[in-house]
Amino acid sequence: MSSSNKRQSVLPRMPAGPKAPVNFSSSITIADSALLAGKHTINIGSESVVHPRARLDSALGRITIGRRCVVHERTSLGAAPASAPASDPTILNTQGGVTIGDYATLEVGAVVEAGGTVVGEGCVVGIGCRIGSGAKLGKHCTLTPLSEIQPGEEVPDFTVVYSNGTRRLDRRGITELKHKAQARQIEVLKRLIPSNPTKFQ
Amino acid sequence: MASFTPYTYIQCPCHDTTTTTTTTSQSRPAEDAPSPTSPHSSDDDDDDHNFDPRAPRSNYSLYPLEYLLWCDVCHQIRCPRCVAEELVTIYCPNCLFEVASSSLKTEGNRCTRSCFQCPICIGPLAVQSLESAPEPSLLSADNANTATTPAGPWILSCSYCNWNSSEIGVKFDKPQGIFAQLQKLRHGEDSHSKHAVGGDTSPTKTDSVAATMKARFSAMRSFYSAQNAIANPSSGLGDYGFSSPGALSRIMSIYSGNNAGSHKQKSKGTMTREADSASEGFRALDLDDSSAVSQLRRDGWDSTVIGDQAKSQVEEGARFAEELWPIPYLLRTKRSKRCPVCRHIISKPESKVANTRFRMRLVANTTIPSISIKPFNPPPALLKPLQPVQYLLTFRNPLFDEVKVTLATPATTPGRFASRVTVLCPQFQMDPSTESGMYLVDDALKDDNKDIQGRRRRGTEGGTHQAEAGKIWERGHNWVTIVVEVVPASLSLEAPPALLRKEGEPEPDLSPLKEDEDVLEIPMFVRLEWEGDVSHDQMSTSTGKEKDAREKKELAYWCTIGIGRISQE
């Protein structure tokens, strides 16, 4: 069986615009089918992993991903903000991208809106979470699946957001262990995901 | 508000067990007092008194068809409220381990294995090891390592909200028998030393830990039983223990009458005293909340518990997050259900925990026709007052026999706002249900034809009034659709003119609209008649000599049909 037998997508292909300017570390793992678009620079730090079909859109601002981050499938970084909060509609006008700290994990289907959004070091953004435009997550936060962070919100360090937005502090004190585990996971992912950074450069 | 799903609730016959007993034995006027809302309640022992779905008592006897069971022997509907339940299996929902009822009596109704719920988010807790370092290893990669060399203390941790038991200073020596270890930590001698981990320990906290309910109760019980033993020989006139010599001498002294006065004084001297020390289970209420206040100041809102967390705790009284303990899973039961009258089992689950099947389950929708409601015309969001609306009621026969249905509704719905109801075809026959696919195909074809015809008819006549009185609207192989016409009442609250009011009639209720009073509910009396197989108990007596004997069967019940909300203009 040749690959031509594969079912082709019925959707029109992505407009083959100019490639987004990228600045990759030499040790990253990025899948061939990741989607990178936009006119601002996309920086990815050393040993980070970008899964297939993750979408990185730098149309509204620069995207910076720190070291040893894992960006899972179908996550969307730098997505256009869904809606402006009624209290402060000016938030949307601020140009700005997305900054992801070191050792962060963005799980499947998470959306990080553009507009100066920051995901702190060691955060775990759960499946299907949405982080609003301009929100700032502190270090080592955990968002349980389907949590939402409102635009412009600031979340303190070590916060756990669970059960429809209830919050508590994570007092486990296991950041070192988490870092170690993240490094191990990345080692495995490196072997599993065929990397093709040259496609985007 | 705008969306309303029509519903049918069926009344279980258990609602009027009291009224049936009153006709035979004594009457209870308090129970049978006519309610001011129902017009027919003056003749309350009458068979045809109307059922009011809005009466407060109706709430307890109305059920959706799916909830109802069926007793084959009594030939009657049984609801979850009137069946007698028996425990078949007691098990833990987490580990699915069956618990014997004898151990239930000694160890309580919670799982005594290592099944715990997170006190913060009620997620399941997992036992995990702490490494030699104070950090717990919560991640799978590290766990694999420690699994080979299990070491160090163990903790319970929640993988959802990241709570772990080291937050309240609880660590375990071994990964097995967590329940016993936790009991020991909580009620044992360790309870004081344990909380030293948390820094300053408030006096309220150590108190509540030391004197738990169970310990206090047992202390109190032993104290008072000792007191009773002292007091009983010289107890008052009320309870004579004739076997005891003390009581005997007391009786003698009463009859002799010599030293009664002195004896009384003596008996006062040996009165029972109340518990007054901690060893006797006494606990003074600590009114000094300063430590709690200072803790609240220091840790803020986040350190307090929310109501749900406090309620799900095994022992009450937790106020701060660090007083929350892991919750052992509450055991669950599988129950069999018996008919309250004939004691026959009508529902019995498989006794194995993991098996979700039923050995026996007689449900009502194998006998009672289901009723579905559809508006005749595409409905407006709310019913317009005083404008007739037609609804299609579809009855579907689950029986393999032809069923004759008779419907009856009061002309006006009970309650303050009386809507007019007309069932255009109150009597009809339903063909038997069959499992054969042929009929279904037939039915589908028929349906198509009907649909076309119906549309054609609607096209030619164009009006809404094609429904004829006394005729079935549509029929399928085991279902019948009839038309019900409703004239919703006006919800305006105006007193009727004084001239029209009769002498002695009660003052009309002009209070504002109550909750759900704008819902139009039709009480409907359904009577079914069919010829079925002879029921089981009679079969056994006749020793099955007439296998194909038929007998006439009859079933009647009230149901209530929720049609929609009336607009409040």
Explain the layout of strands and helices.
The complex is a heterodimer of chains A (201) and B (569).
Chain A: E1 22-24, E2 29-30, E3 35-37, E4 42-44, E5 49-50, E6 55-57, E7 63-65, E8 70-71, E9 76-79, E10 98-100, E11 105-106, E12 111-113, E13 117-119, E14 124-125, E15 130-131, E16 136-137, E17 142-143, E18 148-149, E19 154-155, E20 159-162, E21 166-169, H1 175-192
Parallel strand pairs in A: 1-4, 2-5, 3-6, 4-7, 5-8, 6-9, 7-10, 8-11, 9-12, 10-13, 11-14, 12-15, 13-16, 14-17, 15-18, 16-19, 17-20
Antiparallel strand pairs in A: 20-21
Chain B: E1 7-11, H1 17-24, H2 29-32, E2 62-64, E3 69-71, E4 76-78, E5 84-91, E6 98-99, H3 101-107, E7 116-117, E8 125-129, H4 140-148, E9 154-158, H5 178-187, H6 190-194, H7 203-210, H8 213-231, H9 245-256, H10 260-269, H11 290-299, H12 307-312, E10 327-328, E11 332-338, E12 345-349, E13 358-361, E14 370-375, E15 389-396, E16 403-408, E17 420-423, E18 427-430, H13 437-461, E19 474-475, E20 479-487, E21 519-533, H14 536-541, E22 550-565
Antiparallel strand pairs in B: 1-2, 1-22, 3-4, 5-6, 5-11, 7-10, 8-9, 11-12, 12-13, 14-15, 15-20, 16-18, 16-21, 17-20, 19-20, 21-22
How would you briefly describe this protein structure?
The complex is a heterodimer of chains A (201) and B (569). Chain A is mainly β.
Q: What is the rounded distance between the termini of chain A?
A: 32 Å
Percentage of residues in strands of chain B: 15-25%
Adjacency order of strands in the biggest sheet of chain B: 2-1-22-21-16-18
The named CATH superfamily of chain A: Hexapeptide repeat proteins
Number of helices of chain B: 14
Across the major sheet of chain A, the strand order is 2-5-8-11-14-17-20-21
The helix content of chain B, as a percent range, equals 10-25%
Count of discrete domains of chain B: 3
Overall geometry of chain A comes to: globular
